[in-house]
């Protein structure tokens, strides 16, 4: 596949940050499993990854702005372009030595994602997408799954936990979905969930309480793989409502309807 100069910049940046995360991930098992020690270690790994990404992307396009999980918003002189960066999506997995985490970088033009990269450095799976150019994993073209009925489908989700989300509302949604699909999966990284939808591994995905750095690259990935993405109300307000629903056209529609039944 031919990559644009901008996408090559993004790929080089995530690969460089990924080498650091892989090294740090190898040290996790040597840490004393306590709240402070591993927590501080993972926070440091997160910040090191973000710093590498910031430096590499800033060097390539000095005028572009940033929206980053740790650093927040950095306004650039080019108001039309912004990097949206999650340096470590799946922090809890990382902390527990589970190799399901990713770096997610999107480039937005006038608020719309036009390029995205999601990279799991442990498995060396590199997902890339450009608007109008398709989606790929390690240069292999991606297409969303072709299943047409929810009972045949595996649906991914994010589960709220201590101090996060409306547990009661989520359990209502889960009850509806689990009664109407072949299986439910919880990976622990929204970026990977969306990449797996694009790859046809998952047939659908829904989650609440997400931030732009969790979803921007994956949103584009699913779209370029032929899928549909919206917020939980079927609107194009994913960032505003902090909700997302994804799948092929038919499963996206059925999943929206299933979730709506949980809300009465």
TrEMBL record:
Signal peptide: none annotated. InterPro entries: IMPase (IPR033942), Inositol_monoP_metal-BS (IPR020583), Inositol_monophosphatase-like (IPR000760), Inositol_monophosphatase_SuhB (IPR022337). It comes from the Bacteria. The keyword Hydrolase applies. Mg(2+) binds at residues 69, 86, 88-89, 214. GO terms for molecular function: inositol monophosphate 1-phosphatase activity; metal ion binding. One of its GO terms (biological process) is signal transduction. It catalyses: a myo-inositol phosphate + H2O = myo-inositol + phosphate. Its EC number is 3.1.3.25. Belongs to the inositol monophosphatase superfamily. This is Inositol-1-monophosphatase.
